[in-house]
Amino acid sequence: MTKAVFLGVLLVVGSCLISTSGCKRKERAQDWSPHYREAIEAYHGRDYHRAVSLFEKALVYLPSNIDIYLDIAGIYDDFLGDPAKALSYYDKYLQVATDQEKISWARSWAAGARKRLAVVSPEEAAPGTQPDLTGDKDKALAELRNQLQEAQRLLAEEKEKTKGLSERVGELNAKLAAATKEQKELREQLAAASRVRQEFPAEQESRTEDTGAGAQPGWFRHWVTAGWLLSVCLGFLLVVLIVRQKYARAKDKALLASIQASASGGGEEIRKEDVLGKYYWVENDHSAGVLTFTERDDEIHVSAIDGTTRLRSRGKGHLAGNVLTAVLSSPGEEGVMTKFIFANKGRTLTAVWQGEEGTAVAAGTKEMQE
To answer: Which of 75, 113, 327, 355 has a CB 3.0–4.6 Å from the CB of 360, allowing a cystine?
Structure first.
């Protein structure tokens, strides 16, 4: 587990502690919970300096909550680029921590911060001793540009592949909306026809009593016949609409099944080593990013970054055959069950999850190391 993932987990747990009650520690947390809640909101809003300030205020009210030290250290280390301050908070946590698993994580992160702190920047070097790094910088920049161009090319290819799928999903959504509207109109027409059938017999009975005639006039019989015919037609249209909706849903399910089958490679067996690495994924014209699969403690950790919103989601996955199932969550958000279907010996994947607007699909390509 990386320190950024652990920071997100701590923030989610902190949010739950603020919104629930049940133990004495939670009841005592009422005096400092506003600072902690505001710190979480500032973190979600990417206002990291304010988040650090509010976490420090929360420590004043509840110094026994030592996990806040890891919150502050993670923000300094991952987002503010200040390994010195991050190291000071890691050391504070290690001085009082008792959880051996968290202590192991904190020591690992602190070691990384010390390595970054030990690197001397060119401005801090003694005058006359700075090496000429211009050529190395140019070479590194050129390599980065090449990698960026390659990533853009891969993204363009994946966008082209998924363009047809996005258009198909849009067409299905439009047809579903039109069918729903048509069904609503048919129901309104059926209700109007029912009211007409109820009103005409009452009116005819009243007129029969007034005239003293037992026979119904011809125009009334015509209206009744027309009403029955209208009811039959509306009922037929309603049945047709229901059949169309079921057919559209069946086509959607078949489309999703074909996507999964085509991406699964016919039951191809994928090794854990084939999955590990970085993937560039594309969902539609407005959503793309990077997926990273790493192994830690015999478990596969998944990290997803949206290239547009910069939103990070993390979780642990279980690989079975060529399908990796993981629950990805962001700080303060509920987890989303996602299936990653690998093919071509792990070089490509298809991600499928259930979003707010239905089933969502994204395609990814692995970054190949030379």
So the answer is: 355
Full-model pTM: 0.33
Range of the domain at 344: 272-366
Task: Classify residue 294 as exposed, middle or buried by CB count within 10 Å of its CB (0-12, 13-18, 19+).
Answer: middle
Q: What's the confidence (pLDDT) of residue 290?
A: 93
Closest-CA residue to 78 (of 43, 124, 103, 122): 43
Say what angle helices 83-96 and 100-118 make with each other, to 10 degrees. Answer: 150
pLDDT given at position 179 = 83
Same domain, 225 and 252: yes
- Cβ(86)–Cβ(94) below 8 Å: no
Residue 190, burial from CB neighbour count under 10 angstroms (0-12, 13-18, 19+): middle
Tokens of 252: 């959607």
Which one of 247, 264, 281 terminates a domain? Answer: 264
Domain for residue 297, yes or no?
Answer: yes
Q: Is residue 90 part of a domain?
A: yes
DSSP states along 337-349: EEEEEEETTTTEE
